[in-house]
């Protein structure tokens, strides 16, 4: 649904050049919620603004729903008109809502429809329908100043949906909200994604946002995408930074000559009793050093750090058994394990 290819953005600032995007290739599938996460200055805002051509890329292409927006971004009047039309299939939600304070909630939602030339009666009907969709049917005549932050963002989302877009871009939509309101707005975005088949591309600096609603994620650093994939693919990638942050597991070996293995469960494997099967089949004692279980984008996912007696060479067969069960397995090399001083209390007690 969204593809960027070699997307580059260089800003000229006080005679200096700042490369905000450095050849970004992004692929967002139809109907998924895709999160781009990165620290401040990584280039996230530049990316999302280039995707709907609010910012003109220095080079590279942006295709949304099969339309090459960069090809439409010429300076002629005709090109401008085509770009505006293509943009109507892209809604955008902002961190600070960007509502007009002098207009009622309903009139704010109608604004993009006015620009598209939709008739007054049709605009009013659509605005009320959208208010209902975001749970604010009773606020049509209120002004933005009379609403809470979460309600303002619901209006922002309704306005973004006015032109019946296929794609919703969200620029840190929950960063200005408290944790509970954040959860309700994320739930709304997820519901809209599922009810309307809406593709959502969001940028955030909060891993919790990715964990709560994303099907796929990309990690951005210094203008580049350094990791990208579905949550399942990321968890299956040895050494993935995103996977480690989504599911941090820790725990040190309880002694020398032990094999420490990180096991990732998802989908059906999350509910299978594989650890007890492993223990029974090979008659070995297994210690659990650390574990995390959670739901990511409606799927149950878990990670566990376990320890088997003996070196890896002695455990090739049991580790193979785990792999055969469809689990993702990563052997934790001794140098990657935390030093005993940092080990959790339980692991140290187990070593006694
Ligand atoms: N209009 C601009 N002119 C000059 N430099 C800019 C401009 N906009 C962004 N930059 C620079 O580009 C880089 C990427 O900025 P960008 O805002 O895209 O990052 P970000 O990941 O969204 O950060 P944040 O989360 O703080 O908004 C930064 O070094 C920033 O200073």
UniProtKB/TrEMBL annotation:
Q: Which residues form the ABC transporter domain?
A: 2-247
Record's InterPro entries?
A: AAA+_ATPase, ABC_transporter-like_ATP-bd, ABC_transporter-like_CS, ACT-like_dom_sf, MetN_ABC, MetN_ABC_transporter-like, NIL_domain, P-loop_NTPase
- Keywords associated with the record: Amino-acid transport, ATP-binding, Cell membrane, Membrane, Nucleotide-binding, Translocase, Transport
Asked whether the keyword Heme is assigned, the reply is: no
User: Where on the tree of life does the source sit, at the highest rank?
Assistant: Bacteria
Q: Name the Pfam families on file.
A: ABC_tran, NIL
Single GO MF descriptor = ATP binding
User: Looking at the keywords, is Nuclease present?
Assistant: no
Q: Which PANTHER family match?
A: AMINO ACID IMPORT ATP-BINDING PROTEIN, METHIONINE IMPORT ATP-BINDING PROTEIN METN
Q: What is this protein called?
A: Methionine ABC transporter ATP-binding protein
Question: What is the organism lineage in this UniProt record?
Answer: Bacteria, Bacillati, Actinomycetota, Actinomycetes, Kitasatosporales
């Amino acid at each position: 649904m969204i593809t960027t290819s070699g997307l580059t953005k260089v800003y000229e600032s006080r005679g200096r050049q700042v490369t905000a995007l450095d050849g970004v290739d992004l692929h967002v599938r139809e109907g998924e919620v895709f999160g781009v996460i990165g620290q401040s200055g990584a280039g996230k805002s530049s990316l999302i603004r280039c995707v709907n051509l609010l910012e003109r890329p220095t080079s590279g292409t942006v295709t949304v729903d099969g339309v090459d927006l960069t090809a439409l971004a010429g300076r002629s009047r005709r090109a401008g008109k085509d770009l505006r039309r293509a943009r109507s299939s892209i809604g955008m939600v902002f961190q600070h809502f960007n509502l007009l304070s002098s207009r009622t909630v309903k009139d704010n939602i109608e604004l993009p429809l006015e620009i598209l030339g939709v008739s007054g009666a049709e605009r009013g009907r659509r605005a009320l329908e959208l208010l209902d969709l975001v749970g604010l049917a009773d606020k049509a005549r209120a002004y933005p100043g009379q609403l809470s932050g979460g309600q303002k963002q619901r209006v922002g989302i309704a306005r973004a949906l006015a032109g019946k877009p296929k794609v919703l871009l969200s620029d840190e939509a929950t960063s200005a909200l408290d944790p509970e309101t954040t959860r309700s707005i994320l739930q709304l975005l997820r519901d809209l994604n599922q009810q309307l088949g809406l593709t959502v591309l969001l940028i955030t600096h909060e891993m919790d946002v990715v964990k709560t609603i994303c099907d796929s994620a990309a990690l951005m650093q210094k203008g580049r995408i350094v990791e990208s994939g579905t949550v399942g693919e990321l968890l299956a990638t040895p050494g993935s930074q995103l996977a480690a942050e989504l599911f941090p597991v820790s725990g040190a070996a309880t002694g020398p000559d032990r094999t420490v293995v990180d096991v990732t469960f998802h989908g059906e494997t999350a509910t299978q009793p594989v650890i007890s099967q492993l223990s029974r089949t090979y008659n070995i004692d297994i210690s659990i050093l650390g574990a995390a279980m959670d739901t990511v984008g409606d799927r149950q996912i878990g990670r566990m750090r376990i320890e088997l007696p003996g070196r890896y060479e002695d455990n090739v067969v049991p580790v193979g058994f785990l792999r055969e069960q469809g689990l993702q397995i990563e052997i934790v090399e001794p140098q990657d394990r935390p030093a005993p001083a940092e080990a959790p209390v339980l692991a140290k007690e187990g070593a006694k």
